[in-house]
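Slide 14.
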Amino acid sequence: MRPLQGHLADGAVKSNHETIDVLSRHFQLTNDELAELLPSGQQSVFTNRIAWAKAHLKKAGFSESLSRGLYKVTPRGIEALAQAVCALPDLITIKIHENEINTSRTR
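Slide 15: predicted structure.
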């Protein structure tokens, strides 16, 4: 998730297509690796993994969707990227839990 968060860190609005391109180059994926499909045959494994990473960042409040396929980092996401105290997956889990508690309090 850190490469995705790093990609978003400049605060600019990003598209799914741009993110897939940037991260596939970051991970030096081959065309065969990019073409690998999930067992359903409906989506590439890499695109699916990016979608899950984006979902976790959004749920933790580290990114926001502006419209379909467009998103950007939040101030909270930039702050999390700067923190070296906690591993990012652990920090995301903590923030998701905090968001769930805060949401249940406001209902």
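Speaker note: Residues 11 and 61 are 14 Å apart (CA to CA).
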